[in-house]
Amino acid sequence: MPGALSHIRVLDLSRVLAGPWAGQLLGDLGAEIIKVERPGTGDETRAWAPPRLKDADGRDTSESAYFLCANRNKKSVTLDISHPDGQAVIRALARQSDVLLENFKVGGLEHYGLDYASLRSVNPRLVYCSITGFGQTGPYAPRAGYDFLIQGMGGLMSITGRRDDEAGAGPQKVGVALTDILTGLYASAAILAALAHRDISGAGQYIDMALLDVQVASLANQHANYLTTGVPPRRMGNAHPNIVPYEDFPTADGDMILAVGNDGQFARLCRAMGHPEWAVDERFATNTARVANRGVLVPLLRQSSVMRTTQEWIAALEPAGVPCGPINRLDQVFDDPQIKARGLRIELPHPLAGSVPLVANPIRLSETPVEYRSAPPLLGQHTREVLTGLVGMSGDEVDSLASRGVI
Partner of 135 for a Cys bridge, out of 154, 210, 355, 382, CB 3.0 to 4.6 A? Predict the structure, then answer.
């Protein structure tokens, strides 16, 4: 079956992570993604290495692992958009595209006549999505925005890290560029909504996505806790502000996670730990009481949890219906039988390495499943194909652009 978005063409002028993540998701769903990159250097993440993809002999290739994570199912076209001929190519591609993705600074593409107002006159059906750090309006709009910076400004780091009374306390970023990833996901949803509206109205529209907006919106229950009480949440390590016990606990050979979400689960945990009396203790019988008395309960649980290994606890608690699990390294993640059963590691043919290992898209569609058509492209791999096949240039015209450094 063709992909759900096999009728959609995306002109992707974005780079780094948020925009490319959105483009990769749309590509996985079947859309044709034309990734426009700077001649000679390409997307900045091509240089964010080591590590790099290795060939069959174990030698580094030119492809960074970072670039590989967000750019499968795309065609790479190198194009200098500062050159008038490069701008003409973009307009020609925009005329035949459904979506344009970009993450230039505010006003950056207007200088080249490639802003929404200019391209809308070329293609009124175009859905144009701009991703910036702070959005198109407001006092911070001209600033550059990076994930780490936004994690701090948007409040995420104020609730991430050890408690202030613990050794090693202080603000901590999440171990992956989560704001970029979430912005890519929100952008994808916005693009799909705009395409659905276009099906009804016939008109495209402009999408203004900001990393800071996404970060603030994504704090979920934490911002709700603040807005309803006026009290800013604090860092709690791995503990949960609203649920107890819901954190990591030491075991005889490491650590495990307990994620007890209701009173029934807590009662079963107490029986498995040999302390059924805790479940009827008025200090612990309800989640509200456990949150109020976490300082008493958690040390008691820790005294008990160290008596068995992680796997022994999992073997005892899983049959009892108590949510628990190990804290896996990534080698353990990809060796996990559930991960293997779900096929989360995939391999795609690659011209330099033979094949490239990637992580599967988690979306499972029954009628239009995700497609893995191609590995992340080499820089400029599809320039000639796109310019001759889609733009309609002759081979001589393409050669002329190449001789002048436009492509």
Answer: 210
